[in-house]
UniProtKB/TrEMBL annotation:
One of its GO terms (cellular component) is plasma membrane. The chain crosses the membrane at residues 33-54, 75-97, 161-183, 190-208, 214-230, 237-253, 259-278, 285-302, 357-375, 382-401, 407-425, 446-468. It comes from the Bacteria. One of its GO terms (molecular function) is pentosyltransferase activity. Keywords: Cell membrane, Glycosyltransferase, Membrane, Transferase, Transmembrane, Transmembrane helix. The keyword Transferase applies. InterPro entries: LipidA_mod_glycosyltrf_83. It comes from Legionella quinlivanii. Coiled coil: none annotated. It is found in: Cell membrane. This is Uncharacterized protein. GO terms for biological process: lipopolysaccharide biosynthetic process. Signal peptide: none annotated.
Amino acid sequence: MNRTQRALLSSLIASGLFLTTLGKIDNIKLAILVHLFIFLLGGLIVYALCLFDFPKKIFAKIGSFLGKSADIPEYQLLGISAVVLFSICYFLSGALFNHLPVEMDSMAQYAGAKIFLSGHWSLASHPLREFFDTPWFISDGRFYTFYPPGHMFLLALGHYFYQPAIINPLIAAVTLIASYYLAKEIGGSFAARICLFLFMVSPFIVFLSSEFDNRSTALLAATLFALFYIRTIKTKEIRNAIFAGLSLGYYLITRPQSALFFSLPFVVYSLWILLFQFRKYFKSFALMSLIILAFIFFFLYYNQQTTGSAFLTGYQKYFGNQVVPGEELLTNDNLNNWKNQIIRVIDYMQLLHRQLFGWPISSLLLAFLLFFLGLEKPWCRLLAMSFFSIYFSLILSEYTYDIFGPRYLYETASIVIILNAIFLSRIPAFFRKRLRVKLSLNEWRGIIALLLFIMTLIALSTIIPARYQLYSNNYRQSNKQLLRIIDTETVKPAVVLLSEENDRLATIFMQPWFDSNPVIVAQDRGSENYKILQYYPERSVYVLEKGKLKRIQ
């Protein structure tokens, strides 16, 4: 591919990355005008400041201070950053959610992890099955959740140490380190250090990592796969191929559909390489493929042990074929359906523009400029293609809701953060070489640091407090008052019977019905409740009526 072709490809990627995610035409026009105004105003302010020696000295001192941070040993910088991020996420987990899952998906996997910890893939359905008809669980003789097992393995580890709430913050800390090395592999040390900062101040990352969502595991696996895949191509070392295969394999048993679309550009690129350099890369790709195949066989085995059929996933058994990507669109020839889906996904993408960083400018703008100005490094295009692949997968899906932000795009968060970081790291060279702006590297570092500081302050005063307030007020299916009543107003051991669907949704995480549970939660079935009294004679049995517990005998 010659320089002209590369420039054309970069322009297409840039246009797609930014313009196709802004929404309708009126939104695009308005967004372009707003961003032009912000950049012109910001550029004029910076230019005016640089005309005077005093501001330039301030910028230089800030840049010099940041430059000295490069002397900090890498392991210390990463260790401190990881501990800080872990601490923030763990604190928010307690402050916002009482260290409990608040969304149905997370609740079901939290409960499913307890089944894994018991040494089983599933439990035998309760003898009083009708009392334990739990949302997001299948009870067909076996009792299990329909989610893939990847994230539940890690939650089971947390349950083993009686600290499941540490798992997602810990995953976030490890993902921070993986993102640092991926940014360093592509853009160098300066880009990697900017990536650290952007990752830690992202409200999207921090808030979602404070709950129990399986997308945290998916993001870590996706980031590790991209890192070790690139290292495999660069070094042809077998160990990198092994780690790449393990990462993608684990991604597949955590979120199979996302893993498929995320890895698709890498698969195409691998086939292209093998076409011209077969002998050089065959061994690495063959080993990587065998490891991934082992995970696929394990997933088939898991399906066999739960649904009873290797090729029937829990999703399909619970929801039917509507979970197959594009099944409804591909079986319906109405073009309006495609149009409506595309519009819906474009509208959904605006959440990423606003919530990834919470800046007054789009979170994708700097990634757009990276390609538009031709500043991208090798591998940036491949990362952008993975972003678009996930974006396209949403068109084939029915699930685009604002839950902890645009969480169905969460696996692309590291990609967007890294592309933004690489652009910021390339600004000094761009202005020095192409625009002949005579500012020192330290002065540019100071300017970049000041701009990031101002935009982060804006996020801290706008979107972050708003999201904090939203999440703290019984977000999604959580009901703190109900849990307090169950905990404080029952004589243990107890059974609490719930009739309201919302109450049952809020207590999914309290399943399954292990005898060791202080409180077992079941469905209120009115005249049939005597069966529970007979089955649990040693437990106090309560019925929740109008927010109050009534003991029955």
